[in-house]
Write a structure and sequence with these properties.
By secondary structure, the protein is mainly beta. Helix content is 7%, strand content 56%. Strands 1, 2, 3, 4, 5, 6 and 7 form a seven-stranded antiparallel sheet that branches. The radius of gyration is 13 Å and the shape is globular. It comes from Brassica carinata.
């Protein structure tokens, strides 16, 4: 289960994906246990996050300006060090 991060995607790509029309989600710094029931694609407008997959001490880090794809079925802990503001969309259930 790999989290895919694209750093600083072009404004053309973001426009083609319709990112700015996606719903928004935000959270304060802290630790959050999350389970992704569907694949999520998100674009961080603000913030910085370390994601620790369940049962692992290794992490993936991303932040403002990153386009991130999180795989379906991932159980993880988000360690948010800077306030997060993101646009997101879930793939439709299959």
């Amino acid at each position: 289960m790999d989290i895919v991060i694209e750093h600083n995607p072009s404004s053309t790509k973001l426009s083609e994906l319709g990112v700015m029309s996606w719903p928004k989600w935000s959270c304060q710094p802290g630790r959050y246990a999350l389970v992704f029931e569907e694949r999520e694609t998100c674009y961080l407008v603000k913030g910085k996050v370390k994601v620790y997959p369940k049962g692992s001490s290794e992490f993936v880090e991303f932040g403002a300006g990153d386009l991130v794809t999180i795989p379906k079925g991932l159980s993880c802990t988000w360690e948010v060090s800077l306030f997060v503001d993101k646009h997101y969309k879930f793939d439709p259930p299959t």
